[in-house]
Please model this.
Amino acid sequence: MDLVNNPTQSELSFSNHAQNKILKVFGIESTAHTFSCSVVSSNDNGDNREILSDIRSIYTPPPSSGIHPREASRHHVEVAPKIVEQSLIQAGTSIDKVDAIAFSAGPGLGPCLRVGATVARSLAFYYKKSLIPVNHAIGHIELANMLTGAKDPIVLLVSGGHTLITAFSFGRWRVFGETLDLTIGQLIDQFGRVAGYSSPCGQQIENLAEKSSNFIPLPYTVKGNDTSFSGILTSVKKLLHNGKDLESLCFSLQEIAFAMLAEVTERALAFTEKKEVLLTGGVAANKRLQEMLIEVSERHGADFFVVPKKYSGDCGAQIAWTGLLAHLVGISVGVEKSFIKQSWRLDRVDIKWRD
Model:
């Protein structure tokens, strides 16, 4: 069953012509550890864009532990009313004045997705608003495009839930390479937890890596244009248990894993001959990864863009903004069909708002 009501070309023309006002969309993000709500606005052409609010509450597991879906969803249930209210107050609006309600429909942790979807369905049904399901990965990409001004980039999406290289072509975001096992965020978080930190561990690993320049050889696994990080994780865990210093292991982990990502991104850039490189997702905040992607971009005469750190992680703004783009072209879903999808690839989503 198709999740989304996609309009026909004639309906698209009518929808674009009919809208002639400032639009506001309320977005809800709840794929993993973050429950976040946001209100964004723009005119009918997608111009005059503004993030009116972005309020978040992040579930933090105990030290050395990962995200437990049940505990994270319980956190989301407890904070949801407060986050919804604060987001509307910060935006200076009320739910009856927004034009549509968007929610992260997947991919993600089922119990967490259900909380956001239930809140969105309830608000849409009671206030008679359009309901828009948003693919979380596409939310990362579209918000980064909006904030940076990138138009037609090769995208490296790196987070706890995603590691892939994609570019837009023939109506969809097409995948030019991806991880075969762990995401880069999972590699960093799982090693960080072994070292005694709580997820997410990206900032701690980056800080420790900056204290060393001692390179320790680790497995470098690139197959075609795909990557594999499980060998790195096994090696650094074993070396840590055998007494190697944590700073050198963090430094080496970053150098090897980021070099793999730079290699496959450069290969996709050379193949597609794009003139823009966009780095987005939670791991995009890492300065060493940015340095490597800047070097790749310069070698190919491409402009480099990176999502602002404030919006690199999961947030309601990515869902609200992508929901607004979908609303502009008439995409919506009935409450009775608003299913979540724990597994939902971005290259299965038709993108009606891009040429």
